[in-house]
Specification:
Blueprint (H helix, E strand, L loop, with lengths): L30 H15 L7 E4 L6 H15 L3 E6 L6 H11 L11 H14 L3 E6 L7 H13 L5 E7 L10 H7 L2 E4 L5 H15 L7 H14 L3 H17 L7 H8 L1
Parallel strand pairs: 1-4, 1-5, 2-3, 3-4
């Protein structure tokens, strides 16, 4: 059933490079945005107060990839600690601070522990250790936005070391459920990630094709066709990678040595 269509040498060498979970060593086509993030976090390297950030833009435009890339370098090159939390998974005040403490090395907290007591633990950690950069991805999913922000700001305000807050969202700044006082305390710098252009998608796909496919199996014309189609449709890199993978699988299934226009058309259906 499965052996009849399997190949010893298909055109795809590794689908990993086409997966949305794959993180390249350096994000492509986002140099300016990375530079803005680095400048906001740079004071942490000198144990000074950093800027807080609100990173926004549609899905699949590199927001998470870029912040994780910068965080990796921040930990490698400075004394700061980084924490990344997705608010889809940790969307309440208690679950967020619990996950933050676990990433800081505390044992899992038993249920029923007072939230204020947990934030006191965070302040103690800041007094005894180092500054922290905290990224809260999908922040629009957080049910208690204002309380969480207030808690984190207060923990930093009363401690020896600083907290940077980077809020990441698919929605515009107006979606934040803050009052004027919280906005003033945070003093967020906004970084907007626009949808990828056809040229940017081509740059990304060209690199992934070299990593994921056997030589000469995906032409530059196919890469441009996908890039232009997705740029017009969504500008979402994940969509472009998914379309490329589906077209390649169709070519593989038909024992073709190249991805052709007919495979691309079928993949769009």
């Amino acid at each position: 059933m499965f052996k009849e269509k399997s190949h010893k040498k298909g055109i795809i060498r590794s689908e990993n490079y086409l997966s949305s979970s794959y993180r390249p060593p350096k994000p492509q086509a986002r140099d300016q945005e990375i530079k803005q993030i680095v400048e906001a976090l740079r004071p942490l390297a000198h144990r000074k107060e950093p800027d807080n950030l609100f990173i926004h833009g549609p899905a699949g435009v590199g927001k998470t990839t870029c912040i994780k890339h910068v965080f990796d370098n921040l930990e490698q090159e400075t004394y700061a600690k980084t924490v990344y939390i997705n608010c889809w998974q940790y969307n309440s005040r208690q679950s967020l601070i619990t996950e933050l403490l676990i990433q800081l090395g505390y044992p899992a907290v038993r249920r029923g522990k007072a939230v204020d007591e947990l934030f006191t633990k965070l302040q103690t950690w800041l007094d005894r250790n180092r500054s922290i950069a905290v990224a809260l991805d999908e922040f629009d999913q957080m049910s208690e936005q204002e309380k969480v922000i207030y808690d984190l700001i207060q923990a930093s305000k009363n401690a020896e070391h600083e907290i940077n807050l980077t809020l990441i969202s698919n929605n515009k700044p107006q979606s934040l459920k803050f009052d004027e006082r919280s906005h003033s305390r945070l003093n967020l710098n906004h970084i907007k990630f626009n949808p990828y252009t056809a040229s940017q998608l081509h740059e990304i796909l060209e690199k992934r094709v070299k990593e994921a496919f056997r030589p000469d199996s995906v032409s530059d014309d196919i890469i441009w066709s996908i890039s232009e189609y997705i740029a017009e449709k969504s500008g979402d890199c994940r969509d472009a990678l998914d379309l490329l993978l589906r077209a390649a699988r169709k070519a593989d299934y038909q024992n073709e040595r190249k991805v052709k226009g007919k495979h691309l058309q079928k993949a769009k259906q």
